[in-house]
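Structure tokens please, single chain.
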Amino acid sequence: MGMYEIIRNKRDGKILSKDEIEFWIKGYVDGNIPDYQSAALLMAAFIRGLNEQETIDLTMAMLHSGEIIDLSSIPGIKADKHSTGGVGDKTTMVVAPIAAAAGLKVAKMSGRGLGHTGGTIDKLESISGFRTSLSPEEFLDNVRKHGIAVTGQSKQLTPADALLYALRDVTATVDSIPLIAASIMSKKLALGADIIVLDVTYGSGAFMKKAADAINLAKIMVTIGEAAGKKTSALITSMEQPLGYAVGNALEIKEAILTLKGEGPDDFHQLCCALAGEMIFQAGLLADRDSCIALAEEKINDRSALKKFMNMVGAQGGDTKIFEKPELLPNAKEKLAFFSPTSGFIHSIDAEAVGFAALTLGAGRKIKEEKIDPAVGIVFKHKVGDYLRREDKIANIYCQNLLVGCQVLNLLQKAVKISSPPYQPDELIYGLVTKDGFFPFSQEERA
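Here you go.
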């Protein structure tokens, strides 16, 4: 067996065996297979596709290329969640504390943002003193004590994924559903949770632009999780407009805290309770999903989820005074208002354009080494479907200098479309994928 034959087999549309995939991944991680051969195989897989078994075998080979976290010393049901990304997506800061307050153990590793989508670790680091690099012992100990811990991704987990992603990024092979699924699920499985709940987004601000592609991605990820013995399900959610109102690291932390106090935006509150409820349901704590969502709501209302988040922040060295004094979070020097140029209904807010506007402010990074500014960002006052009068404020832009703020104002003016007839936005939660298939939530799909 050699790489030449493996590349040729996939080029010709043949199905790769488990042994061939393992040979490739092990050889590439060990340094015995050069980049150019791995790049050739990635392109062949991109063009010819990978079937379900090939995708499972690739995921498992990537999973076993590094360490796997052992959570067996932690009593209780261990749960994890993952979002495929978006604009204003700060769900971990609310969903994980709700799940922990309900009795689950949430041991989560998160990444940094790149491009127009934010990273959980970047958001948490806007809290003064918060440590996102925990030793394995401290990480597990915090989960035992508080039911929750969030740390940065370990380089020892799935090194094959890091190598392959870097190669995919420069060979135009990122946009492959099997390769995306293997990348995400190899990391999720390496964390050792019993339950995995996925938030698979679609729309202008998401990686998947169409709902059908998000459903296909969710189906293969759920299949992989179930094949590995994990209870796995996925919500399909719209990212046509930013989630919540805030886009920007410290601004999103503020909105997460408001949501845990029961004062957050309706769409963000709804999604967080749905995701946490799905984790509770998969854990078997209650018999039906509606009851599980109601329990998630209860954990917000009784402030127990807020307390879990506060305990986690304190345990990881963060300043817990921000929960009473959010002004202690980083603040931008300047604020610029974006007013409606006309009367009418908001027809659309291009989430991707908003994400790039935040990137222009410095809230994200174009390359991995770039530093971000935790204070800058955008806070909207309205959502799609809202009626505006001329000169009503649409958003505030938080910037460090007004010149950049004016550039972002111009970007936002192009991103927000206003129309005269009323407009009904897409439903936030499009449907649910389980091992039994896709179940639509929208009235149109059910019909």
